[in-house]
Write a structure and sequence with these properties.
The protein is α/β, with parallel strands linked by helices and 504 residues long. It contains 17 helices and 11 strands. The strands form 2 sheets. A 9-stranded mixed β-sheet has the order 1-2-4-3-5-6-9-10-11, with helices on both faces. It has a two-stranded antiparallel sheet with strand order 7-8. Helix 17 links the parallel strand 10 and strand 11. Helix 7 crosses helix 9. The relative contact order is 0.15. The N terminus is likely disordered.
């Protein structure tokens, strides 16, 4: 999970807007294997404080619920509710079909995503019904909340074995707390069951095939769907896709180099603006400032407004430099300036952006995002159970990557998860046509991972944004070349004849 400000902000809005939906116990219509009943489309707003619902309604969208089996192997058993939105095609005469969207995470709500994609797709959006589907246990779809902030999970191992051992205790406790709340549904929180849900959505919409657009984890979900349900995809865009064989609780391993390159790139940018920020007139001096912040946090937690930021949280915050757009770099500089003030014992006001991030990371506001993210990740692939496995990896990585090695290799609650995955991870290997979008400087799902997805989907093309540090490219990064090539594919269904390259 990548701590970009844009995606964290989106996750926070989703978390605060959740409306608790209980798990249904009645069997679903169509549970005998027949098609699901037609969807009952209604207004999206669920009360005066539902800003996302009001925005969807104002845009002409509608929302519905679909009842699906909790356990797809027992279609007549317990059920859950999925929430979805639909922004209908307005050019019905030239309608292409239905496109299902996924925001990534896992754990990020997708209900409001049709609004963003309509802007990105421009005129081609008028030819699609855009579907925002909150995956099972996410957002409004029978939400799963383990009751712990995401910052309790995504942390660095720290500088010593004692600090790591404290993390072991914390991660074990997180897993046990989640089990106490949701032991009955945790075995069914996984990508394969989400893909089965998507196919029931396809059927309920009356579509023989659907198009799909997914970001980051959503790209993996889309690939899994193609493997499980061949022939049911029309147009497929996988943005910021990672290596499908590496998805799971250890997917961050091996991304240290990209994280450090991004941080050095930001340091070079900040050095040219020493007069504004005062971090140092050379990249080396800027990095020295960052190291001093980390060292200060090891001595004592940094006081940032109402928050205490310790040495196991600072590396996670500093890994947020993976966006080279000027506004993002300036925002990251603001964060560093605040941390630097706190490191020197001076009053440090987090400001709205950093405050939003720390609220998600350190308080219960991030709990509705953390729970499903952990449950799906741990439910997809078994993790090593021996803490020494993680400590040894941390120590090996620390030599070359003292800042990000202990973060990327740290133990997660998956090491203590109460249930093992019910199925083997999906091996992606099929000829589904797809357009894979990847930036060479992606710090979360690396360019090597994008190339691995390209090899797995043998009918795909890889659209490379070369020389850019970005995660979430189409319609988000602002590259006209990428946006035009994706929209041309969505309009025509024809992939480029070769793997295209765009530049910032």
């Amino acid at each position: 999970m990548k701590p970009t400000y844009a995606r964290t902000r989106r996750g926070l809005v989703s978390a605060l807007a959740l409306i608790a939906l209980s798990v249904a116990v009645a069997p679903s219509a169509g549970a005998d294997g027949g098609p699901p009943p037609p969807l009952d489309w209604k207004p999206c707003a669920q009360g005066p404080d539902d800003a996302q619902g009001r925005e969807l309604d104002q845009a002409g969208a509608q929302c519905a619920e679909l009842t699906v089996p909790l356990d797809h192997s027992r279609p007549g058993g317990r059920t859950i509710k999925l929430a979805l939105s639909r922004l209908p095609a307005t050019d019905r005469a030239h309608r292409i079909g239905t496109m299902v969207l996924n925001n990534g995470g896992p754990g990020e709500s997708t209900l409001g995503m049709p609004l963003q994609m309509r802007a990105a797709m421009k005129e081609v959006a008028t030819r699609y019904d855009l579907i925002g589907l909150d995956p099972r246990f996410v957002g409004r779809s029978t939400p799963l909340d383990c009751g712990w902030p995401i910052g309790m999970w995504l942390r660095s191992a720290g500088p010593t074995r004692a600090r790591f051992d404290r993390q072991v205790t914390i991660q074990r406790d997180l897993a046990e707390r989640c089990a106490r709340r949701h032991a009955d549904v945790l075995p069914y929180a996984n990508t394969r069951d989400t893909a089965r849900d998507i196919d029931l959505v396809r059927s309920a919409l009356g579509e023989r095939r659907i198009s799909f657009l997914g970001y980051s984890y959503g790209a993996y979900l889309g690939a899994v769907y193609t493997q499980m349900f061949p022939g049911r995809i029309d147009r497929l865009v996988l943005d910021s896709a990672g290596d499908p064989d590496k998805w799971g609780s250890r997917a961050m391993q091996g991304t240290e180099d990209e994280a450090e390159r991004a941080l050095r790139g930001w340091a070079a940018w900040a050095a040219k603006r020493h007069g504004t920020y005062g971090f140092g007139a050379t990249p080396a001096r800027v990095l020295t400032t960052l190291n001093a912040i980390v060292a200060a946090a090891q001595d004592r937690p940094l006081r940032v407004g109402p928050y205490e930021v310790d040495d196991q949280t600072v590396p996670y915050i500093l890994s947020g430099s993976g966006d080279d757009r000027p506004a993002a770099r300036a925002q990251f500089a603001s964060t560093v300036r605040t941390l630097n003030e706190a490191a020197h014992g001076r009053p440090a006001d987090p400001g709205p952006e950093l405050d939003g991030l720390l609220t998600v990371v350190l308080t219960s506001a991030g709990s509705p995002l953390a729970g499903p993210a952990a449950a799906i990740t741990c439910g997809d692939r078994a993790a090593p159970r021996d803490p020494d496995t993680y400590w040894n990896d941390v120590q090996r990585s620390r030599t070359r990557h003292p800042l990000f090695g202990p973060l990327k290799n740290n133990i997660w609650p998956c090491a203590f998860w109460p249930n093992q995955p019910r199925e083997r991870p999906t091996h992606i290997a099929n000829p589904t046509p797809a357009l894979i979008v990847s930036a060479t400087g992606d710090t979360a799902t690396t360019y090597e991972g994008g190339k691995a997805m390209h090899r797995a989907l043998t009918g795909s093309r890889l659209l490379t944004l070369r020389g850019a540090t970005a995660h979430g490219i189409y319609g988000e990064y602002g590259n006209a070349c990428v946006d035009a090539k994706v929209n041309a594919y969505l309009a025509t269904g024809t992939l480029p004849t070769a793997d295209p390259i765009c530049h910032p």
